[in-house]
Write a structure and sequence with these properties.
Oligomer: single chain
Helix content: 25-40%
Shape: globular
Order of helices and strands: HHEHHEHEHEHH
Length: 190
């Protein structure tokens, strides 16, 4: 199944091939080298003042931690995410006063973006999930009070959409869509 997007201009092949499947091959075992490569991409992401405010909690399928992270997902994420080879919980540092720091979320997003592209280069796919129980995952992972959970993303080999239950199957086979550039470029024209 091809999910190549219709774009206004060519993109690099890795970006054109990247999409967020829900159907994962539950027999695929991610290698330590593949996982290290993905984590290194996140480590070397740009960050404001080189603050590197992200922290990664890695839960490989088949481990108790993986099952606990699955329990920290909401909605139909719990139906498809268990098949992923690994679930990575991304946490961010809070400000010194204990409040959320919006810039740290931006920086963590850059890290996740680079990790997604690195995974794609290994013919692995990622899917970011906002439907999570932030406080529950914070407790499960015994994170320090200066961290807050931002997102969970899955990594694995994609599999057939027919393996999914609805509504995930319908979303899996749908065409990729994005708003046109005319709606998101507010000032100036290319």
């Amino acid at each position: 199944m091809s999910k190549t997007p219709d774009t206004s201009a060519p993109m690099t092949d890795l970006l054109a091939a990247r999409w967020s499947p829900r159907s994962y091959d539950q027999t695929h075992e991610i290698s330590d080298q593949e996982l290290l490569s993905i984590l290194e991409a996140g480590r070397w992401a740009p960050s404001s003042n080189n603050g590197q405010p992200w922290r990664f909690s890695v839960a490989k399928r088949g481990t108790e931690l993986h099952q606990k992270v699955v329990e920290g997902l909401t909605g139909f994420n719990q139906s498809w995410a268990p098949a992923a080879s690994v679930l990575i919980v991304v946490s961010v540092k809070k400000s010194e006063d204990g409040s959320s720091h919006k810039g740290n979320f931006y920086d963590a997003g850059l890290a996740v973006s680079l990790m997604s592209i690195q995974a794609q280069s290994l013919d692995l796919y990622t899917h970011q999930m906002g439907g999570i129980l932030h406080d529950e995952l914070h407790k499960t992972l015994t994170l320090s009070s200066d961290l807050e959970v931002a997102v969970v993303f899955s990594v694995g080999k994609k599999d057939s959409p027919e393996k999914l239950a609805e509504p995930a199957r319908e979303r899996e086979i749908a065409s990729r869509t994005r708003l046109p550039l005319s709606e998101i470029v507010l000032h100036g024209k290319p």
